[in-house]
Design goal:
The complex is a heterodimer of chains A (272) and B (457). Chain A is an alpha/beta fold. Chain A has a domain of 173 residues: P-loop containing nucleotide triphosphate hydrolases (Rossmann fold, 3-Layer(aba) Sandwich), CATH 3.40.50.300. Chain A has ten helices and ten strands. Chain A has a six-stranded mixed beta sheet, sandwiched between helices. Chain A has a four-stranded antiparallel beta sheet with strand order 2-1-4-5, covered by helices on one side. In chain A, a hairpin with a 2-residue loop joins β4 and β5. The two termini of chain A are 17 Å apart. Helix content of chain B is 76%, strand content 1%. Chain B has 457 residues and is mostly helical. Chain B has two domains: 158 residues, no CATH class; 232 residues, MetI-like fold (Orthogonal Bundle). In chain B, α2 packs antiparallel against α5 and α4 packs across α5. Chain B has a two-stranded antiparallel sheet with strand order 1-2. Chain B starts with a helix and ends with a helix. Chain B is built from 16 helices and two strands. The chains are: A alpha/beta (272), B mainly alpha (457). Chains A and B meet through α2, β6, α3 and α6 of A and α12 and α13 of B.
Chain lengths: 272, 457
Amino acid sequence: MATAIKVNELPKTEVPAAQRPAPKMSARKVNLWYGQKQALFDVDLDVAKNSVVALIGPSGCGKSTFLRCLNRMNDTIDGCRTQGDIRLDDRDIYDRSVDVVQLRRQVGMVFQKPNPFPKSIYENVAYGPRIHGLAANKAEFDEIVETSLKGAGLWNEVADRLSQPGNSLSGGQQQRLCIARAIAVAPDVILMDEPCSALDPIATAKIEELIDELRQHFTICIVTHNMQQAARVSQKTAFFHLGKLIEFGDTDQIFTNPKQQMTQDYITGRFG
Amino acid sequence: MYTLAIILVMAAGAFLFSRQRAWALAGGRSSALHSRPSYHGWHAALLSGGPAILLVVLWFLFASPIVGAIVTAGLPEVVRSQPPGTLQFFMQDVQRLAAGLPLGREASPEAIEAADAYARAMLAGNWVFGVLGVLLAGWLGWLAYRKVDPQFRARNRVERWTDYILLSAAAVSVLITAGIVFSVLFESLRFFSMVSPIEFFFGLNWSPQTAIRADQVGSSGSFGAVPLITGTLLITCIAIFVAGPIGIMAAIWLSQYAPRRVRDVAKPLMEVLAGIPTVVYGFFAALTVAPFIRRVGEALGLNVASESALAAGMVMGIMIIPFVSSLSDDAIKAVPTALRDGSYGLGATKAETIQRVILPAALPGIIAGFLLAVSRAIGETMIVVMAAGLAANLTVNPFAAVTTVTVQIVTLLVGDQEFDSAKTLAAFALGLFLFAITLVLNVIALYILQRFRERYD
C-alpha cells in the first residue's frame, strides 16, 4: 500500500522551533462533553497555514466533533460543553469578545451530505456574500459567484444555468456547489466533514483534486473515513481513537512508519 | 341482541377449541404447524362469527321494510287502494302501534289488525334469523374446527379476513361521506329548481322569507348569496390577519428560540386554545370583545355596531392560532438540520438563517397550514352566530354587522320548518357551496404539502 501513496511535497528542511511560522489554528487541551458523556480528551493539534490536515479514525472517535470545535458549530447543539484553548491566528476563538458569526466567516465548513439551500445555484453562492455585505452591486455579486464557482471547478458545468435550483445538480456537483458557497465569503480556513462520503469515485476524485488546488489560498482541515484519501490529499494526518488524539504527524510518516501500534493497526485495517 | 351474544360466545368457543386442537396436533411444538395455534383459533372464530353476525345485522337493517312490504300486501283492498301518501301514513301508524307506542288518536280497526300482523311477522322473522344465525355460526365453527391441520394455512386466511375487515371500515367512512354529499346535492338541486343559480350566486340581496300561505304579504324572498359570501370572506380575512402573524411568529419562537423546557410547557398550552369549545369563544366574542371594540371605536369617534365583523373575526383568529402555529412548527422542524448548519457554517446569524433559509424552505408547509386554518375558519359557526349578527349587509367595513354562510344555514333551519320551501332548501345550497369551498381549500393544502415532502431526500 505504501507505494500507492502519493504525498504532496512540503519543504522537508527542519526549521528551528523559534523561527517556525505560528500555526493558522492551534488547539490545546480540548475537552468536550455531550451532556454527561465526554467525547474529547485533551486534544492538542496544530494546523499550519496553506496545508491540509486529515483527521482519521473509526466511527465515533471524535474527529468530526473536534472539527466542529474549530468553528464553534458545536454551539448549536444542546448540552454540548467545550473546554480548552483553540486559537485562530493566535486569538482564542472561545473568548467572550469573539463574534461567532465573524469566526464562521473566517472558518468555513463543508458538510458530509451536500446541503445546497433550496434556492438557485447563483443564490446559493451569493448567500454568504449577501449576508456579510461583501458586494455592493450586481456586477460585484456576479464576479464573486463566477470566481467562487471557478474556484470550485463547477463554473464550466453550470455557467449557462445559474438560475436553476441548487438541488437539481448531481451529488458531486452539489458538493462542489457547497464548496463554492464556502469559498465565496473568502474564509481563511475550510473545514470539511467527510465531504466525499456520499459521492461516487469520479466525483470524489474531482473533489480531491480541488482540495489540492484550494490549498494555495486556504488552510484545510478534512475528516475522512477513507485512508487512501487522507494519504492523497493531506500533508499532516491526525489519528483519533475514542476521543483521544493517538498520533499526529506528517502524512507519509503516519502511513509508512507510524509510531503507535494502534495507528499501525488501524491503517493496515486490523480494526475500525 | 341475545342472538349476537350467543354467536359471539360460540365464536370464542371456536377460537379456544381450534387452538386447543392445533396444539394437540402439533404435539406441543408450534414449529410443526404451518400457522401458529392462535391463528387457527382466530380462523375458526372469524369463520364462525363473521357470516353469522353479518346475517343477523342484515336482518336488523332490512327487517322493517321487508315486513312492511309483506304486511302491506296482506292489507284489505280498501286500505291498499288509498293514494301512496295516505298509505305511508297508515303504515307509520301501524309500526308505532306494533312497537307499543301511543298514537295520540283513535286507531282504526284495520290499523290495529295490521299492527298485530306486523308484530307477529317481526317476531317470527327475529326467531328465524336468530336461529339461522346461531346454526350458521355452529356449522361454520365446526367446519373450521375440522379443518385444523398442521398443513392448513390458517395464517394466510386470517390475514385475508383482516384485510376485508379493515377495508370495510374504510369503505363505511367513505360511503357515509358520499351519502352526505349526495343528500345535500339533491336538496340543492331541488332548491335550484325553484331559485335560479344566477340569482343565488350573483344576487346582492338576501332575505329568505317565503310565503307559507299564498295570500301572505311582504315575503317574496330573495336569495342572493353574495352578501353572505362577502361576510364570510371579511370575517375570515380578519381571522387570518390575527392568526397568521401571531401563529407564525409563535411557531418560529417555539421551534428556534425557546429553550427545551419552556417549549415543552408552552406548546401544549397553546394547543389548549384549540380545545376550547367554540361556544365559549362565542360568548367571549359577544360579551367581552365586541363591547370592548365598541367602546374603543366610540372613543375614536367611529360608528361601531354592537355585533361587529371585527369582534367575530378577531376571536376566530384566536381560535385558529394553534392550527397555524402547530402546522408551521411542524413545517419548520421538517427543514433538515443540514440546511441550518450550512447557513450557520457560512457565518449567518440565527435571524438570517431563519429568514433566508428556514422560512423559504418551510413555506409550502406553512401555506398548507394556513389553508387548513382558513377552511376551518370558513366553516366555523358558533362564534359568528353569537358575535357577528344576522344582518346580511353587503359591506367590507369591519365595524358593521355582517352575516356568514354558516349563520344563515343555522337560522334557516332552526325552528319548525317545512322541507319543501325554497327557504329551507336554501340552507342545503349554502351548505353545498361551503362544502365545495372547504374541499377545494383542503385539496390545495394537501397538494402543496405533498409537493413539499418531495423536496428533500
